[in-house]
Amino acid sequence: MATKPVTVGDLIHRVASSCLSNRLPCNYTLRDSVDSDLDDDDDDPFADAVSSSEKCRRSPSAAEAEEIEEEEGEEEEEKLKIWEEGEQEKERLAAAAKGAERARDADALMAEVFDAVSGVRRAYAALQGAHCPWDPDKMRAADAAVVAELRHLARLRDRFRRSAAAGHIPPPNPSAPPLREAVAPYEAALDDLQRQLQSKQAELDGLKEKLAAATSRRNGRHHHHPLSKQNGPGGAPTAELFTSCAEQARAATRAFAGHLAHLIRAAGLELAAATRSLTKIPVSSPQLAKHALEAHVTRVLLGGFEHESFYLDGSLSSLLDPAAFRRERYAQFRDMRGMEPAELLGVLPTCAFGRYAAAKFTALLPPRVEEAVLGDGGHRRVVNAGAHPRTPFYGEFLRAAKAVWLLHLLAFALEPPPSHFEAARGAEFHQEYMESVTGAPPHAGAGMVVGFAVAPGFRLGNGAVVRARVYLVPRGGRP
Questions:
Q1: Beta bridge partners of residue 435, listed in sequence order
Q2: Phi and psi dihedrals of 465, rounded to 5?
Q3: Exposed e or buried b per residue across 334-350, where buried means at least 16 C-beta atoms within 10 angstroms of its C-beta
Q4: What does the angle CA 372 – CA 376 – CA 378 come to, to the nearest 5 degrees?
Q5: Does residue 25 come out as left (phi exceeding 0), alpha (psi in the -120 to 50 range) or beta?
Q6: What is the per-residue pLDDT for 12?
Q7: Alpha carbon distance 394, 379 (integer Å)
Q8: 304: Cβ–Cβ under 8 A, 6 or more apart, which residues?
Q9: Which site in 59, 230, 252, 279 is 20 to 30 Å from 41, CA atoms measured?
């Protein structure tokens, strides 16, 4: 078989036919092939096409692309995880720092609380120490210290509550006792000490009144014995003696009123309220209540003073034989002046003074007041039976009753007898006829009126005046 010679044209024709009948992969163009043939004429004309096909086959497939994307996603997740862990670590560090700050605040607050509780204990110990020996100044200072420490403790409590509400301190444990329960025993002890202090103060006031009455009686005896000698055997009543006895009677009634106030407090009653109920005087303070009680005692004991027997009977001896009646009264005055009233009533319980004391005692304390203050009605039963109780309270009453009885005897022994007067409520203050129980200076009476009368005044035959005792209030005001 003859071999047909191959020319360049044949080769070009074959290549063109092959390219037209088979589409080249991967967008391979004829221009690329032609350029490649022109670059290397010695190589196989199909070598470039085959090489391009292999290159296209070596490009990443869809599975490989997904795997690459998964790897890249894992890398991103790993980076995000590392970033989140860093943020969480920062938050943990910040929370730890905040917790440490809270712990420091709580420790500081608890240290202050313990210091405050220790201060309360020290102040309470000082308050107890002021009782024995009794020292009013130390009592007041220790009482103020206890109150100050308790207030400091209350401020710490409020500070803790505010801090807990703001989140600076963790809320308290519900099972732990509240601070109020911890302070409650101290508050109860403080209230008890306050009551004891008031009772001791009332007792002290009563002792002061007794001392003033005893001093007045002693001064009266020292001053008037020489007068009796100067006026001859048996002496004679004088206006100066009556003035002295009037002051002694006022001191005795004031002392008994203080003793009655002490018993009202000791019975657990509120002094101002009890005084309002007993005296019908609108008092509003314990100090004012003392004056109101004095006014009540004076009004009862001096009721009927203008009559020769306090209206206990219908005797008119002063009109039948005035001179003899005056001598008899002055003799009774001298005989009874140095005698203890309980001794006299122990011998003659139904004498004139005994009848006077019994009538005034039943009028002074109504049954309900006697039961509330003295615990029962035993005093009234003994008095109604015609006897006189031998109790300290009735002894105090007898001393005041004796002072008024002596003043009454002396008044009817004088010629002419003194006349007594009382200041009406709302009356203008006149210094020559009145004196204020509060000890206000004279110029303070301007614009003041009588709130209530405490003790009546007396005008003597020689023109001397025993001024009435009054409690002053501003014009238009109330006690």
A1: 469
A2: -130, 130
A3: bebbeeebeebbeeebe
A4: 135
A5: beta
A6: 63
A7: 8
A8: 310, 311, 312
A9: 59
Domain boundaries of the chain, sorted by first residue: 10-57, 67-171, 207-416, 418-479
- Cα separation values, 248 from 149, 213, 255, 262, 347, Å: 46, 6, 10, 21, 25
Q: Would you state the pLDDT for residue 179?
A: 61
At a CB cut-off of 8 Å and minimum separation 6, what does 69 contact? none
Give the span between the Cα atoms of 279 and 286, in whole angstroms.
14
Neighbours of 400 (CB within 10 A): 28
Q: Is the dihedral of CA 412, 413, 416, 422 positive or negative?
A: negative
Residue 133 tokens, joined: 């020996």
Roughly what angle, to the nearest 10 degrees, separates helices 286-301 and 352-364?
A: 140
* Pairing label, strands 465-466, 457-459: antiparallel
The H helix count followed by the E strand count for the chain is: 16, 6
Query: Using an 8 Å Cβ cutoff, are 253 and 296 in contact?
Result: no
Residue 293 CA to residue 316 CA, distance in Å, equals: 33
Residue 408 near residue 325, CB atoms below 8 Å: no
* Single-letter amino acid, residue 256: F
3-state secondary structure of 198: helix
C-alpha 377/C-alpha 371 separation (Å) is 5
How many Cβ atoms are within 10 Å of 423's Cβ, its own excluded?
26
Supply the pLDDT for residue 247.
93
How is residue 431 written in tokens?
A: 């210094």
Mean pLDDT in consecutive groups of 10 residues from the start of the chain, 479 residues: 56 60 49 44 44 48 66 75 77 78 79 84 82 75 85 84 67 54 73 75 72 66 43 67 93 93 90 90 86 94 91 79 89 89 86 93 92 88 91 92 95 91 89 85 65 93 91 79
How big is the chain, counted in residues? 479
Q: b/e string for 93-113 if b means 16 or more Cβ within 10 A?
A: eeeeeeeeeeeeebeebeebb
- Exposure string of 447-473, with b = 16+ CB inside 10 Å and e = fewer, is ebbbbbbbbbbbebeeeeebbbbbbbb
pLDDT for residue 364? 93
CA distance 8 to 18: 16
- Give the SS3 label for residue 469: strand
The pLDDT, as a whole number, for residue 149 is 85
The strand order across the sheet containing 465-466 reads 419-421, 457-459, 465-466
Task: Determine the longest span between alpha carbons in the chain, in angstroms.
Answer: 205
Residue type, 364: L
